[in-house]
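User: Before I run my own analysis I want an independent prediction to cross-check against. Here's the chain; please return only the structure tokens and, at the end, one sentence I can use as a sanity check.
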Amino acid sequence: MEKFSTLTSPAAPLPEADVDTDIIFPARFLLLLDKAGLGKHLFHERRVRPDGTKTGFVLNTPPFDTAMILVADANFGSGSSREQAVWALADFGIRCVIAPSFGEIFYSNCFKNGVLPIVLTGEQHANVMSAARSGAPFTVDLEKQTVMPPNGPAITFEIDPYRKRALMLGLDEIGGILADDADDIAAFEAGHRRDQPWLFLDDGRLDQLFADKEKA
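Assistant: Structure tokens:
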């Protein structure tokens, strides 16, 4: 997973509440198994007309077509648990989503795939949404836990310390376990091998074990 430290980018404004995962990544593309290339299907029904031509959707419009930040409204990523919604965002290049609230599973999936979901509410969110419309770049600093709009001042956001560390180190759940618990895992495996050695015998040693038992 790609590490997250800081990013500077225009922030694409999407002032719409309850954008669910089927809007973000339509169900008809769920048979695609490779994460690579899913970005072209992101918000497909909003970005592409039936005849294949592009609409005026914000992510089709410069400078937002290369945005790494998305500013959405409340309950973003609600609906189904499909992780492909986050995969598509990440493949498109979105590394940070700012909203007043998120679907619970979507929020968790963001951290598993290197995307930073930031919760801002009230006046702070309104100011960020307004500033995003200008197309001027924002800076998101995960270490300082700040969002710097183009018109300032910096806005502080909260994040779970474990998730912050995982993003900064580029660790998914398995990577985090291996990084934090490697000694405990090694100790368990050593004890398991000691207490049940027959589970770890290669073919030659297994044949020898049976031969020894027959002699006995």
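Sanity check: The domain at 9-138 is CATH 3.20.19.10 (Aconitase; domain 4).
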